[in-house]
Amino acid sequence: MTLHPILAEVTARIAERSRASRTAYLARIDAAHREGPHRARLSCGNLAHGFAACGTDDKAALRSGHAPNLGIVTAYNDMLSAHQPYERYPELIRRVAREAGVTAQVAGGVPAMCDGVTQGRAGMELSLFSREVIAMATAVALSHDMFDGALMLGICDKIVPGLMIGALSFGHLPTIFVPAGPMPSGISNDAKTAVRQRYAEGKATRDELLEAEAASYHSPGTCTFYGTANSNQMLMEIMGLHLPGSSFVNPNTPLRDALTEAAVHRLAEIAAPGEQHTPLGRMFDERSVVNGVVGLHATGGSTNHLLHLVAIAHAAGIVLTLEDFDALSGVVPLMARVYPNGSADVNHFHQAGGMPFLIGSLIDAGLLHGDAHTVWGQGLDAYRSLPVLDESGELAWQAVTASGNLDVLRPADAPFRADGGLRVLKGNLGRAVIKVSSVPGDRLVIEAPAVIFHDQNAVQAAFDRGELNRDFIAVVRFQGPKAIGMPELHKLTPTLGVLQARGHRVALVTDGRMSGASGKIPAAIHVTPEAVDAGPLGKLRDGDLVKLDAIAGTLEAKVDPAEWAAREQVHADLSASHVGMGRELFASLRNAVGSADTGATIFGRHDRHHAADA
Q1: Average pLDDT, whole number, for the chain?
Q2: Domain limits at 13?
Q3: Total domain count for the chain?
Q4: Which part of the chain is the Dihydroxy-acid/6-phosphogluconate dehydratase C-terminal domain (predicted)?
Q5: Confidence band (pLDDT; 50, 70, 90) for 613?
Q6: Which residues are known binding-site members?
Q7: Handedness of CA 63, 67, 68, 74 (dihedral sign)
Q8: How far apart are the first and last CA of the chain?
Q9: Within this chain, do residues 125 and 162 fall inside the same structural domain, yes or no?
């Protein structure tokens, strides 16, 4: 199938824009590859430290230095349901590695926080920066130079992007990401949403709400709604970093274990010298990045990846811009309806054909680079198949050629909507993004007076006082990465949802985040420059008419230009958000972070590249 011309054009534009930075990155990892692991050249004392705790057989293999040694970087903890299954992975991986004639060691652990626990709490202001901490912890884990390849064990929001950024710094090493899978389905998403909205209106008790939430988040495994965690898994598969079809197999099942074992065997193959050797930094290129953006649009994935994919690409010397997302959104159809963009969950998506059907249909439509490199080594055509256990219990793959449920998953030529539902907004309030894949068609343009807030809790307080029963645009500013770490503002979703359901025309404008669960409320997020950085949001006043137009792609304060130019910035006292719950330790990250449209990263800020391209 011929590649869609817009896909080809965007890919070429990214490659040209990235030429200098990508060349420098490849030169660096190629130099590291030529040097090879230093294990065989370590001093006797260094090497003895490296294998002191190993068993006899592993110790002998490491002493000889001939067989590949696989490093495990794990985000295990048993508070996060998604990461709890990783508890037994190291022993399984070591056993399988021995069977494959190689060795494996846990190189290190990385922190893994749960945005679901910290929503609306002070800890949420550490969430985005935990990605940078994870990237650095990954580098520390691999810095011992004991490894020929790496297995990344991570699932959730900042964890996979952090692992990916860290792994790309060691891009000379072959690397495979190993998922753990979603928990089985619990209470329906419609039922959960109904209780949340009743609670927001004071019509349900805390006990009723807790019962509904506990019935939804009920066992080991990833939460089943399609937020950032499951968008991560989709990305790793469509960018060729997972084994085919492995993203959404439930934890603690024979099939899940078989896939983990197969990942170890595959890494042993691609980590060994020879034709199959597949360094991560060479495998992951502009085609991989474009495939990731296409996957986000086709599935209605998390807007957090407008930050994370940009930062990941930058770690590989690739400059990705919001305009690239926007251009691809115009031609990539929405093929999936998974909560919050529908009532189904990721288990239903997987059962309908999941990633294999999605990938195959996109390739057939010319909307994926089917020739992109993968850890499986056969291009993306191999990812058209779903893993199963055959009659003898052996791992096999079955081709998926049709959707098993057209209410959940549709082919690219008969989608839920013709575009990916993402827009870049520009105007005198700055640049922002909006996800409209589940916003009602009559709410794509909202023009209403601004109501200004400096804290999401203030929105709830105003609602409780009965002050918001009208048309308005909630402007929640001083929420950006430099201000307070760019927390997600999910506490706003039920409140604004109630007001929209009452018939009011409401929207949100913020320099904070809303993730993949922003749902049906028009939300202009990631506004750049942020208010604390002299951004135009700091000029807004209560009552100013604001127009959010997702059709025209504009975000405007309808204020006389002369008055607007003369207005002074409002400043906010953010000191309370800079101490407590560890936030004082992150001051250096707040001071160093780049803008949201360049990935909100502290690593090698590249604002100038994006500004020049835009």
Answers
A1: 92
A2: 5-35+67-184+219-399
A3: 2
A4: 407-600
A5: very low
A6: 156, 223
A7: negative
A8: 31
A9: yes
